[in-house]
Design brief:
Elements (H helix, E strand, L loop, with lengths): L10 E4 L8 E6 L5 E5 L12 H4 L15 E2 L2 E2 L2 H19 L4 E5 L5 H15 L4 E3 L6 H11 L9 H5 L2 E5 L3 H4 L1 H13 L4 E5 L12 E3 L6 H14 L5 H4 L2 E2 L1 H10 L9 H13 L3 E5 L1 H4 L4 H15 L8 E4 L6 H6 L16 H11 L12 H9 L5 E5 L3 H4 L3 H10 L2 E6 L12 E4 L8 E4 L4 E5 L12 H11 L11 H17 L14 H6 L3 E2 L24 E2 L18 E6 L15 H4 L6 E4 L1 H6 L7 E6 L2 E9 L7 E5 L32 E9 L2
Parallel strand pairs: 6-7, 6-14, 8-9, 8-12, 9-10, 11-20, 12-13, 14-15, 15-16, 21-25, 22-24
Antiparallel strand pairs: 1-2, 2-3, 4-5, 4-16, 17-18, 18-19, 21-26, 22-25, 23-24, 23-26
Bound molecules: iron/sulfur cluster.
Family: Belongs to the prokaryotic molybdopterin-containing oxidoreductase family. NasA/NapA/NarB subfamily.
Protein name: Nitrate reductase
Keywords: 4Fe-4S, Iron, Iron-sulfur, Metal-binding, Molybdenum, Nitrate assimilation, Oxidoreductase
């Protein structure tokens, strides 16, 4: 393949996997082969990479790549495909209104792609039916932040994990899911032996290797722990009374905390006391949380239960202190900033606030803006199945595998009037159902920006040409916008121009009081964009070292942080005689999402190379299971086959199954077929860790 890569130079880009957002040097080794190294100058990783990052060069093969558009399975040219997409969307909108169409996008999209998709759907089509697979990942954190802080703003920085004297990982297997951040934590703990780490997780995960205390919380019991902590903070007189002048809702939150039953945490009184002793006795504490908190029918409340404790003690937005939500995908945070969820506008503006809507509409010179939030992911596919949505465009995600009740999602797509899929490959369960399949440029072939979990915006840069006629997503979306009748609004000639427009919009947001203001970059030209170095926003922050809320100033109308009363609720499904096992789903260390990229790297497949079901030895004995037997997990939604992995890392009555395998990679292994599409009422995030199943021996190993 021809490339921009000269033998002696490397291109600085960003890893396309997780929200740590590591900087990557993409160059050539001595033999002239494409090679990858960690970027020593990137502030997220300082040269480190994890197993997935170091294997990136092995995933660049083109065998399965989509090289030309396809309509009903037949290769065609771009003009034919794009004309068809524009015509069918326009026709549906004319006949059924703008809410009869939808975009379902992805945290894999670059910010510029997201920006164009949002502008097209919200400003010009006039619907808010654009949602993202980040809904499955961190929507509860977004909702919790907005309730407590007034905006979806992450208060702290990665350095806080290194500066803390106590790091609590709750619902976060940082070792496998954010490995380089975990490496930084391991190094910090080695350098400062007095540092303590607590892991709160029903499973004994790899992150427990450095834990001073592992608390095997009952599924859904997290809010009960943090309520118990809040009550104890108050009982011991450990609140920060000066900081509480900047916070409302303390009395109500405390009353709810006192009323909740600590036993619902599943922990013993001694375990709870040990946790409270550590947390209250350590001023510099960071509480890291992720999918174990978010993926719950009460995820938003769990987030606020954590935030309550930090607000009550003023441990927020100061070095080594704060709650810290780590995002799953490479650009989940950029998607949040650019308004990529059905209930948001760009730059932390609020879709349902008339002044914000009017300002964005004026900036875009847009004909129509929706006045209410659109359909969130689960609602969107339900509406598709019920025929309320007639046309959907799915971009870089595989909902037939990753959505809860995945079989119903597949049926909805099979029955839909018009399905467009943009992807780098045709080999996904979702791409196979597309009427129109659009070939997109992949990582290392496209230009743009991403934002990681600590608000660091970094460039992704192209080093290789895209195969065939594959194109960047922003360009495909803009082409459709032009063909739908808005040539001026979608008339950019480069990705740098898209970024510059986004930066200019952030100035409008800044004038409305938004904290997300990068408008000093509005005049950026192509060369400056090409050279843009990673930066954490707020840019050039002198106050609070780039952290938020430590000064007691929040983004709520009264400027105060909000504590919320939280009444713990367990998962919606309850184990019973017919379905006695609680099903926990999650990631493995070396695979990513539905494996479209990582499965190409042989060494990544060597670690846990097939679907498995972690089950406790007592349960295995009762079911007559031997090591390596195949088990069948089932509930009324379907059945899945996996290899039994007998381990006391899970508790009796609970099983863990990874979420990566697909019908393409292992038949009968899409675990999300068994996950109920129950959602958090505030965030709309599905409860991916709380369904129930029965298990039986399927075959000998
Ligand atoms: Fe990529 Fe995340 Fe690994 Fe960094 S930690 S190399 S961003 S997968």
């Amino acid at each position: 393949r021809r490339s921009r890569l000269a033998p002696s130079e490397a291109i600085r880009t960003t890893c396309p996997y997780c929200g740590v957002g590591c900087g990557v040097l993409l160059g050539r080794d001595g033999a002239g082969r494409i090679a990858v190294k960690g970027d020593p100058d990137h502030p997220a990783n300082f040269g480190r990479l994890c197993s997935k990052g170091t294997a990136l060069a092995e995933t660049l093969g083109l065998d399965d790549r989509l090289r030309a558009p396809r309509v009903l399975g037949h290769e065609t040219g771009w003009d034919t495909a794009l004309d068809l997409v524009a015509a069918r969307f326009s026709e549906v909108i004319r006949e059924h209104g703008p809410d009869a169409v939808a975009f379902y996008v992805s945290g894999q999209l670059l910010t510029e792609d997201y920006y164009v998709a949002n502008k097209l759907m919200k400003g010009f089509i006039g619907s808010a039916n654009i949602d993202t697979n980040s809904r499955l990942c961190m929507a509860s954190s977004v909702a919790g932040h907005r309730r407590a802080f007034g905006t979806d703003t992450v208060p702290g920085l990665y350095a806080d994990l290194e500066e803390a004297d106590l790091v609590v990982l709750t619902g976060s297997n940082l070792a496998w899911c954010h490995p380089v951040l975990y490496q930084r934590l391991v190094a910090a703990k080695a350098a400062r032996p007095a540092m303590r780490v607590v892991v709160i997780d029903p499973r004994r995960t790899a992150s427990c290797d450095i834990a001073d205390l592992h608390l095997a919380v009952a599924p859904g019991g997290d809010a009960a722990i943090f309520n118990a902590l809040l009550a104890e903070i108050d009982r011991r007189g450990a609140t920060d009374t000066a900081f509480l002048r900047h916070v409302t809702g303390f009395a109500e939150a405390l009353a709810a905390a006192r009323a909740s039953d600590p036993a619902e945490s599943g922990l013993s009184p001694a375990e709870l006391e040990a946790f409270c002793d550590l947390w209250i006795g350590t001023p510099k504490v960071v509480t890291v949380y992720s999918q174990g908190i978010n993926q719950s029918s009460s995820g938003t409340d769990k987030v606020n239960a954590i935030l309550n404790c930090h607000l009550a003690t003023g441990r927020i937005g100061r070095p080594g202190m704060g709650p810290f939500s780590v995002t799953g995908q490479p650009n989940a945070m950029g998607g949040r900033e650019v308004g990529g969820l059905a209930n948001m506008l760009a730059c932390h503006l609020d879709l349902e606030a008339p002044a914000h809507r009017t300002a964005v509409q004026a900036f875009w010179d847009a004909p129509a803006m929706p006045e209410r939030a659109g359909l969130k992911a689960v609602e969107m596919f339900r509406a598709l199945g019920e025929g309320r949505i007639k046309a959907i465009w799915i971009i870089h995600t595989n909902p037939v595998v990753s959505m809860p009740e995945a079989d119903a999602v597949r049926a909805a797509l099979e029955g839909a009037d018009f399905v467009v899929v943009s992807d780098i490959t045709e080999c996904t369960d979702t791409a196979r159902l597309a009427h129109v399949l659009l070939p997109a440029a992949a990582w290392a072939e496209k230009e743009g920006t991403v934002t990681n979990s600590e608000r660091c915006i970094s460039r992704q840069r192209a080093a290789l040409p895209a195969p065939g006629s594959a194109r960047p997503d922003w360009e495909i979306l803009a082409e459709v916008g032009r063909r739908m009748g808005w040539p001026a609004a979608f008339g950019w000639s480069s990705v740098a121009e898209v970024f510059a427009e986004y930066a200019a919009l952030s100035g409008v947001a800044g004038a409305l009081g938004s904290d997300f203001d990068i408008s000093d970059l509005a005049g950026i030209d192509a060369a400056e964009y090409d050279a843009l170095a990673p930066f954490v926003w707020p840019r050039n922050a002198r106050k609070n070292g780039g952290r938020f809320f430590g000064d007691g100033r929040f983004h709520t109308p009264d400027g105060k942080g909000r504590m919320l009363p939280v009444t713990p609720r367990g998962p919606e499904s309850r184990p019973g005689a017919a379905f006695p096992f609680r099903l926990n789903t999650g990631r493995t260390r070396d695979q990513w999402h539905t494996m479209t990229r990582t499965a190409k790297a042989p060494r990544l497949n060597q670690h846990l190379g097939e679907p498995y079901c972690e089950i406790h030895p007592e349960d295995a004995a009762r079911l007559g299971l031997g090591a390596g037997d195949l088990v069948r997990l089932h509930n009324p939604l379907g059945a899945v086959i996996a290899r039994a992995a007998i381990s006391d890392a899970v508790r009796p009555g609970e099983v863990f199954v990874p979420m990566h395998w697909t019908a393409e990679t292992a038949s009968a292994a899409r675990i999300d077929t068994l996950v109920r599409a129950v959602t958090d009422p505030i965030s709309g995030q599905p409860e991916s860790k709380g369904s129930v199943v029965a298990i039986e021996r399927f075959a000998a190993g």
